Amino acid sequence: MADHMTPQQRHRCMSRIGSKDTQPELLVRRWLWRQGFRYRLHDKRLPGTPDIVMHQFRTVIFVNGCFWHGHDCEHFRLPTTNTEFWRKKIDNNRRRDRLNRGMLKYAGWHVLTVWECQLAKATRQATLQQLSTQLSTIILDHFQPRPATKPSPYTIGDTTSLAAEP
Ligand SMILES: [Zn+2]
Question: Hey, what CATH topology would domain 17-139 get?
Answer without folding.
Answer: Endonuclease; Chain A (3.40.960)
